[in-house]
Amino acid sequence: MTDITKEAMMPPRSFVSQDAIQVFYRLLAALLICAVLAVLSDSFLSLGNILNVLRQASLTFFIASGLTLVVLTAGLDLSVGANVALSACIAGTVIHKTGSPALGILTGLACGGIVGLLNGIMVTALRIPSFIATYGMLWVLNGLTYWYMAGETLHGFPAGFRQIGSGYLFGLPIPVYLLLVFLGIGTLFAQRTIWGQEIYAIGANPVAARLSGIPVARRLLLVYAVSGTMAGLASIIFLSRLNSAEADIGESLTLPAIAAVLIGGTSLFGGVGTVFGTFIGALILTLVLNGMNLLSVSANWQPLVTGIIVILAVWLDMKTRRRAQ
Amino acid sequence: MREAAVVSQPNPLQRIPGVAIVLVLLITLFSVIAPGFLSVANLSNVLVQSTILTMLALPMTLIIMTEGLDLSMGAVLTLTSLCVAIVSLATKSMLLGFGAGLLVGAAFGVANGWLVAILGIPPFVATLGTLGMAQGLSLIVSDGQSVVGIPHSVRDIYSATLLGIPVPIVMALVTYAAFHGLLYHTRFGTYIFALGGNREALRYAGLSPNKLLIAVYALGGAMAGIAGLLMTARMNSGHPTAGLGLEFDAIAAVAVGGTSFERGNGWLLGTLLGVLSVGVLRNGLNLISLPSSVQVASVGVLVIVALFLDGLRSRA
Q1: CA distance A276 to chain B (A)
Q2: Contact criterion met (CB < 8 Å) for B301 and A140
Q3: What is the least distance, in Å, from the CA of B295 to any CA of chain A?
Q4: Do B248 and A127 touch (CB under 8 A)?
Q5: Distance (Å, rounded) from C-alpha B196 to C-alpha B189?
Q6: Which residue of B303, B310, B312, B313 to mutate against A (max A Cβ within 10 Å)?
Q7: Residue of A316, A304, A287, A308 whose CA lies nearest to A37
Q8: Do A258 and B125 touch (CB under 8 A)?
Q9: Of B105, B102, B130, B106, which Cα lies nearest the Cα of B116?
Q10: Closest chain A residue to B130 measured between Cα atoms?
Q11: How far apart are CA A310 and CA A285, in angstroms?
Q12: Is A300 close to B136, i.e. CB distance below 8 A?
């Protein structure tokens, strides 16, 4: 507890500069990985591969950016992957039934948001620890999705809708533009709005936040709802990219999203981290996985490597923070 | 929260109602709506199917009592089950296979304990990381395929009987007795209560909380190894997703059984009743032909309700 209080007592400006240094180190790490991969593999620097890395990183970033806000409050949302699966399947059904992509997109976002809101209610009103509440939600959503799909696959969506995930604009994949938009919105929200600063305050010291008049429960509801809605957005991109929806598409998404947040320097203990850091985290993780792919390492190795990265990231984070104090 | 911890045996009278009522309600419900639920064959089926879960839920109780969590148990069970299958296939020896599974399970347990105790990583993230690692290793050693053609000596463990009682049930009962003895009648058990309730007291008593914590997680990993043997015997094969989500059923059983997530207070008999509740729920839903997806969702709801009630009780 004392560590956290100490950090909360530091003037807010030192957060920013400390964060800037952390982000700088991570950018260096990303460049280093790029250099190594460029030496090891001829195809790494090809335009096609770089665009592929960016597109892949943006998919991880959409889920991880909402999750960052949750982790900033010292919470965790383990249900994001399962949320993507359910939202994608429901949105896909709506598009098939009504023929309207707009309606499908709205349904997907709403579905993700409602799930996030339910997570928030469990954490605030029912006071269940967030990691266990969202872990319960993970299995509830998994069950619902498998039951709803009954082993079916939704396939074939309108060409216009598929542009969202697989189309290009001025030579760049459309998800990359979305990434820039949400990176901007997320950074502005977290660093430049009162609500964003209140979220940092809640994570740094919830008691002090409550005593200084921050509506803690309402802000927590907000971050879980945002995390859910971003999962809903990711579900739309997945749906349009894969041109199909199955019940199991979310199973391999949660661990990479958490990895991206933690590599990006957001502390599990709350109050420290940035959305931009998470973007770098998503980029680093994608580069590693892409590199393994280029060096023809079997995809079976991905969960092992991601697991190791999660643990390393937390350990490094704790070590640097301890030294900083 | 820690001030409220009770470093003595919990008061059973306070807890019996919750989980016992859940179990009785579930049994009553399914004996009315599910034809054949009350038959001897089906009930013994529920018991046999609950044995693997018992072996995970008992150590999970101890881990949760230390204010920890082990999300990797299901994935580690998958890996140990594959080890049993692969090694017994290669050596034709059930015992060597079992040894390999036990060793791998214990190694993962020690790793979990080390990450939590020595590095100080929060348990849910440390074990989420090892979950990924165990899942990855399972895919790598099996190449994503089932391992079939294992010796009959492995399969026979699941179908054999001892004095007319199926061997898995005997193993589960022995495990329960061992855990009961360990928790309530040894010093180690008292230390476990202290790990969740008052870690400082352990330090003042000259003990190392870190070593004890590693031992508790190692026990969890080793039990996942033993359960892995049963899983391979039950399926007569090794499969890279065999234990998917089993850790969640174990957490559900512990939560329904009245072990608190915040006060270092645990109750083994409650966990056993919790295991039976989860087993009855899954079996009953299966009998009225609801798919396993609905069973998974119901267990999720069961956990959330149990934790909500736990939260109410802790505030009362």
Answers
A1: 22
A2: yes
A3: 7
A4: no
A5: 12
A6: B303
A7: A287
A8: yes
A9: B130
A10: A307
A11: 10
A12: yes
What is the reported pLDDT for B11?
55
CB-CB: which of B129, B293, B296 is closest to A307? B129
Do B276 and B46 form a contact (C-beta atoms < 8 A)? yes
Contact between B291 and A150 using a beta-carbon 8 Å cutoff: yes
pLDDT range class, residue B297, cuts 50, 70, 90: confident
A227-231, A304-308, B21-25, B112-116: which has the minimum mean pLDDT?
Answer: B21-25
Residues 6+ apart with CB under 8 A from A70: A76, A77, A130, A223, A224, A227
The whole-angstrom separation of Cα A310 and Cα B121 is: 11
Q: Identify which of A128, A143, A262 has the shortest CB distance to residue B294.
A: A143
From the number of C-beta atoms within 10 Å of its C-beta (0-12, 13-18, 19+), residue B110 rates as: middle
- ipTM confidence score: 0.80
Q: Which of B278, B291, B223, B230 is nearest to B251 (CA)?
A: B278
Write a three-state SS string for A23-38.
Answer: HHHHHHHHHHHHHHHH
Of A146, A300, A311, Cβ closest to residue B143: A300
Candidate from A127, A258, A268 with C-beta closest to B311: A127
- Four-residue CA torsion sign, A301, A304, A308, A309: positive
Q: What is the mean pLDDT of chain B?
A: 86
Tokens 């976002």 belong to residue = A109
CA distance linking residue B77 with residue B232, whole number of Å: 10
Residue A5 pLDDT > 70 = no
* CB atoms closer than 10 angstroms to residue A183: 17
Amino acid at A197: Q
